[in-house]
Amino acid sequence: MSRRSTDHTTITIERHFKAPLAKVFDAWAMPEQKQQWFACHGDWKPLEFQLDFRTGGSESNRIASTNGVIHAYQARYIDVVQNERFIYAFDMMLDQKRISVSLATVSFTSEPGGTKMTFVEQVVFLDGYSDNGSRLMGTEIGFDNLKLYVEGDDSRPN
Amino acid sequence: MLEEPQALDRMFQALSDQSRRGMIDRLGRGPASVTELAQPLDMALPTVMKHLQVLETSGLVLSEKAGRVRTYHLRKEALAAVERWIAERKASWNRTFDRLDLFLADTSTETTNE
Fold this sequence. Notes:
The complex is a heterodimer of chains A (158) and B (114). In chain A, a hairpin with a 2-residue loop joins strand 5 and strand 6. Chain A is α+β, with helices and mostly antiparallel strands. Chain A has helices at 21-29, 31-38, 139-151; strands spanning 6-17, 45-51, 58-64, 70-81, 85-94, 97-111, 114-126. With 114 residues, chain B is an alpha+beta fold. Chain B has a domain at 5-80: Winged helix-like DNA-binding domain superfamily/Winged helix DNA-binding domain (Arc Repressor Mutant, subunit A, Orthogonal Bundle). Chain B is built from five helices and three strands, in the order ααβααββα. Chain B is elongated and about 65 Å long. At the A-B interface, strand 1, helix 1, helix 2, strand 7 and helix 3 of A face helix 1 and helix 5 of B.
């Protein structure tokens, strides 16, 4: 059943981190750092992660969920201003099905005690955003993942 | 039925306006009359009613008239279809950023001052 549709929306998320701006920026920019929080999904099987963080650079992340669905993310960095902001375009695929195409802008501001990060994703959801079965984009699994992450390290202060 | 592409298009269109999203927010806290909905907005009553009409056509809200007062309320099951995608994507990013937060907290213990 092929039903074509494009639905647009903008998602804005503001987060505050208790870390200096340069450090937060580096967590996005350095492949070995970004891999640890972006590409890591508990018992999901990482297949590929690559990041070339610079204007014109690309990024890809492929991961197999526990039910065997391959989640593929492919990005291109369009504008990178060190320690200020970056803009990148990306798409997401579940197996062979492209479910969304996005333009994301991430900007950073220093604030007392840390860094404010503003993430804005302009997203096009494609063709009904995939069927019910594979649309489980790790919503439940993600929570387990976070719980494991938190509980897995007793030394963490919180 | 609610997931027909045209129905979703109308919902997205209805949600594309800031004052209409404000009305949805307000109705999320319970039914309200036109006057109540217009109160926080710097907007003439006919304009408010036009926005409400768009929301009602999209299927996101319903209205009932009792005497002279028309009361609007959210159709939660309609919102579910369109909001699910957005909520899911948003939740997914927030979980990712939770991991970033933990990652930053973890690595900050390696440095002497934070």
